[in-house]
Automatic annotation (TrEMBL):
Residues 61-182 form the Phosphoribulokinase/uridine kinase domain. Transmembrane segments: none annotated. This is Phosphoribulokinase/uridine kinase domain-containing protein. InterPro entries: P-loop_NTPase, PRK/URK. Coiled coil: none annotated. It comes from the Eukaryota. GO terms for molecular function: ATP binding; kinase activity.
Amino acid sequence: MLPVLSSLERVRRSKAVQQAMKDRVQRTGDFILRKLTQKKHIYAAAQSTLDEQRRPAPPLVVGINGAQGSGKTTLVRGLVEFLQARNISTAGFSLDDIYWTHRQQTTLAQAHRDNPLLQFRGQPGTHDVDLGHETLAALLRNDAEVEIPAYDKSLNGGYGDRVPRSQWHKASPPVDVVLFEGWCLGFRALDDQEFARFVHEVRRPGGSALHKHSRKYSDDNLQRINENLVAYEKLLYPQIDAWVYMRVSDADVVYRWRKEQEDELAATGRPSLSDKQLEDLVTRFLPGYEMALEKLDKQGFVSSSVLPAPDTLRMHLDLERNVVAWDHKF
């Protein structure tokens, strides 16, 4: 009897998760539709005052920020279906898709041998920001087919590599919505005073547990990651019109969620990381969260400023990935 009850419980939970994701897609999709309508109206008004030949309307670019394991990929997949069911042409890619090539990442790691945060892909500085800028700019022109980069994390023994250009996805105009997601997409660099305060908390004896992972790294290690964010703010964020923020209150939940994913892989006989490998991987990401989340909550995201406020839909996630609250910011 127990196995039957256990099976029924799994089915019940699966249905609950599916319904929760359906609700999340609906709420987020409605937000995107409102912002798309606003951008179309703004563009049409601007074009009516110009004598030049009407150009294709640019798509709405939506940035999606969410911690690893929070369900970004599932949300994006659901949003694509939601939008395309309404005849809204949608293209999407991830910050992961513009990681440096394996050769470039190796060169980066060698140039910063004293910085463990740059020895593996993940942190700001391990992405080809120029490639991301060029891809978004081409999508915004909306006048020709655009090749969208792709990355395969399984290549080179798990170190990953960008796939050949011949295997990149292609988006054909007109594109109405672009979904661009990433765990650190939207993170902002701390200015000198903000960084000094952050380091003070990191090094303070008995300091907050919110900075415990950053204590493993030197000030220079942390400063390099912080400085790398300047290029993201300058080249990527001004191309993004609206944001979806999957907020977590404590970055430690990332390890828990990733551990669940690895356990599921192991249970099905697929390759998975050991606890030690997983801890090593996740702890390389956590200082980025510790530096960025407070400023993100207080000051919000950098955007194109094309649309009126609020330009951010924020969902608050609990430890089980449930959305416990929604609000609009900035």
